[in-house]
Automatic annotation (TrEMBL):
Keywords: Cell wall, Cell wall biogenesis/degradation, Membrane, Secreted, Signal. This is Expansin. It comes from Microthlaspi erraticum. Residues 171-250 form the Expansin-like CBD domain. GO terms for cellular component: extracellular region; membrane. Its main location: secreted. The keyword Membrane applies.
C-alpha cells in the first residue's frame, strides 16, 4: 500500500471512530474559534445577542460562547450549557482532550463574503462556537485559528436563584431572565401581579420577555418553563415598590 492510500485509510479510520463515539454518548461534531475583540485581542467576556450584558457581573463568568445561527435558534438557546472538547488535532488540542462547560450567551453572525470553510465559520448551516478565552484555552492552544470539537448539552449548575431584571415603562413591561439552572433554556414565561391572573409573556429577543402591561405598584410573581418541560413559580419576587432597572431573585431549578 503506497503512502497516499495509507493516509486515506487512516483518515477514514479516524472519521469512523469519531462518528462512533458521537453516536455512543451524544457528542455532536462542530468547530470552534477563540472570540476576539475588534482590535484582535482575545475577549474574556462575551455579551450581546442574549441580552446578558457584562458577563463578569453574572454567574456565567468567563465560560461563555457565541453560537452560529443553526445552534442559536433565534435566541431560544440562550442560557443553555454545552460541554465542549477539542478532538482529532494533535497540534492544537490539549493532551487528553479536556472539556469545558460554557453557557450560550451570544450569536455568531454569518459572513456571506467568506467561504464556510475559510473564514465564514458561522455561515448557515455550520455548527460553530466562538469560545471565550477561558473556555478556549482550557481545551486548545491559543494560537489555533480554528479547531475541530465535539459538544453536547449538559445540565447547568447555578448558585442562587433565578434572576429577574426589570425594564420598560408604564405601557411596556420587560424582564431579562438569567442564572437559570437545569436545562438553562427558557421557552415560556408568565407574570402575575397581585391583582391579576397569570399572564403569558412573549420573547422579545434573547432571554428578554415582554408584555404590554402596566404592573407598576404591584408585587410580581413569575412562572418559568424550560425546554425540558420543567416549570417553577416564584411568588412575590418583586415587592410592590419595585423599580425598573432593579434585579430580583426567585426560586431555582434543581435536577
Amino acid at each position: 500500500m503506497d503512502y497516499g492510500l495509507q493516509q486515506l485509510a487512516l483518515c477514514l479510520f479516524i472519521l469512523c471512530r469519531l462518528f462512533q463515539v458521537t453516536a455512543e454518548d451524544d457528542w455532536k461534531i462542530a468547530t470552534a474559534t477563540l472570540s476576539r475583540d475588534k482590535d484582535g485581542s482575545s475577549s474574556v467576556n462575551i455579551g450581546g445577542a442574549c441580552g446578558y450584558g457584562d458577563l463578569s457581573q453574572t454567574s456565567y463568568g468567563g465560560y461563555s460562547a457565541g453560537l452560529s445561527g443553526k445552534l442559536f435558534n433565534r435566541g431560544s438557546s440562550c442560557g443553555a450549557c454545552l460541554e465542549v472538547r477539542c478532538v482529532n488535532h494533535i497540534r492544537w488540542c490539549l493532551p487528553g482532550s479536556p472539556s469545558a462547560v460554557v453557557t450560550a450567551t451570544d450569536f455568531c453572525p454569518p459572513n456571506s463574503g467568506l467561504s464556510s470553510d475559510y473564514g465564514g465559520w458561522c455561515n448557515f448551516p455550520k455548527e460553530h462556537l466562538e469560545l471565550s478565552h477561558a473556555a478556549f484555552t482550557g481545551i486548545a492552544e491559543t494560537r489555533a485559528e480554528i479547531i475541530p470539537v465535539q459538544y453536547r448539552r449538559v445540565k447547568c449548575g447555578r448558585r442562587g436563584g433565578l434572576r429577574f431584571s426589570l425594564n420598560g415603562s408604564s405601557h411596556f413591561f420587560q424582564v431579562l431572565i438569567s442564572n437559570v439552572g437545569l436545562d438553562g433554556e427558557v421557552v415560556g414565561v408568565k407574570v402575575k401581579g397581585h391583582t391579576t391572573a397569570w399572564i403569558p409573556m412573549a420573547r422579545n429577543w434573547g432571554q428578554h420577555w415582554h408584555s404590554s402591561l402596566d404592573l407598576i405598584g404591584q408585587s410580581l410573581s413569575f412562572e418559568v418553563t424550560l425546554i425540558g418541560g420543567n416549570t417553577i413559580a416564584s411568588y412575590d419576587v418583586a415587592p410592590p415598590y419595585w423599580r425598573f432597572g432593579m434585579t430580583y431573585q426567585g426560586k431555582q431549578f434543581h435536577s
